[in-house]
Amino acid sequence: MTIDSDIMFETALRLRADAVETELRLLLSEQILPGEIVRPQHLMAAMRHGALNGGKRLRPFLVLESAALFDADGEAALRIATALECVHCYSLIHDDLPAMDDDDLRRGQPTVHKAFDEATAILAGDGLLTHAFDIIADEATQLPADRRAALVLALARAAGPGGMVGGQALDLDAERNKPDEAGIIRLQAMKTGALLRFACEAGAIIAGASPQDRERLAEFGSAIGLAFQLADDLLDLTADAETMGKATGKDAAAGKATLVSLHGANWARTQLAGLVGQAHNLIEPFGERAIMLKAAASFIANRNS
Question: Model-level pTM?
Answer without folding.
Answer: 0.92
